[in-house]
Amino acid sequence: MSAPTAAKNVFRCDVCGADDAAEIDVARAYTGDQPIHVCRQCGFVYVRERRSAEAIAASWSDEIFGDGYSARIPAVVARQVYVAEYLATEVGLNGKSLCDIGGGEGQFLEIVRKDDYGATPFGIEPSAANCAAMCANQIDCFEGTLEDYLASSEKKQGFDIVTTMWTLENCQDCNTLIAGAHDLLKDGGHLCIATGSRLLVPFKKPLDLYLSDNPADTHSFRFSANTLRRLMAKHGLQPIRINRYIDTDVLCVIAEKTGDASAEDWPGDDWRQVIDFFNRWDRETRDHYPPERLATA
Q1: Most Cβ neighbours (<10 Å): which of 20, 90, 106, 202?
Q2: Of the candidates 155, 123, 148, which has an alpha carbon nearest to the alpha carbon of residue 54?
Q3: Over the stretch 203-239, which tens digit does the pLDDT of each residue have?
Q4: Residue 162 belongs to what H/E stretch?
């Protein structure tokens, strides 16, 4: 897939606001020559040059998911059950209202409403087809973006739990999403963010299967345990639980809506260690998993 040609804006670090970033040089070999940067202040890995939110959403709908993608495959079911189990174990689901931002076809919401978990589900989802699938399955939902929902007369507040899974990294503005999630929660409610566990952990796949030549801003953010918790605390959400991300594919953080959360309480990463990590990942991929293997896979 060729790199996007639409107009782009240059963004500061979304976590700390600094305008001081170093390029991760080895990434270009895997991204079709598109740059990815790391913040020199907090170690956050992000794409500095991004198109509009609408253009990014269109890339997902028309280019990436346009070939009939469905979450109803074993790998996705497994990770959604993992998140449900983690929530049930750490904060409880039974009798609680749960809003999933980016609800997709509603598969996760089907899981958490089962008797084993007993949550009352609600989905926010921009795809009309996905919302139709949820409605057919008697799952209450809103068709539109989070911003649309927050501005609508249908807006509900006071959810016990808000979830966003493998979605935060793919939006244009992660701060808007986290702030919106905070708005939806009741005081003392919990936000659960699940994403891939890939940075500053043992390598879990070759680098060419992590980075791609899709438009770089369709995956604008790449979180570590430190930068994700710092971002949540920045919005008044105090991280209280984190899974054993070091040797699983999932990084899952639960934060509580509280008045005393502060980003200053959560350190970021050393940007030099992040660049060294990508350099070592590149060498490991080239030495042991050369790209030509894909031709015979």
Answers
A1: 106
A2: 148
A3: 999 999 999 999 999 999 999 999 999 999 999 999 9
A4: strand 159-165
Chain segment 168-208, per-residue pLDDT in tens: 999 899 999 999 999 999 999 999 999 999 999 999 999 99
| b/e per residue 231-257 (b: at least 16 CB within 10 A) | bbbbbbbbbebbbebeeeebbbbbbbb
For the chain, state the CA radius of gyration: 19
Residue 3: other Cβ atoms inside 10 A: 13
Dist. CA 117–CA 83, nearest whole Å: 12
Q: Long-range contacts made by residues 55-61, C-beta under 8 angstroms, separation at least 24?
A: 55/4, 55/6, 56/170, 56/171, 56/172, 56/215, 56/217, 56/218, 56/220, 57/126, 57/145, 59/4, 59/214, 59/215, 59/218, 60/170, 60/218, 61/127
Q: Are 229 and 239 in contact (CB under 8 A)?
A: yes
Q: What is residue 38's DSSP assignment?
A: E
| 179, two tokens | 């702030």
* Per-residue buried b or exposed e for 16-53, using 16+ beta carbons within 10 Å of the residue's own CB: beeeebeebebbeebbeebebbbbbbbbbbbbbbbbee
Q: What is the DSSP letter of 214?
A: S
pTM for this predicted structure: 0.92
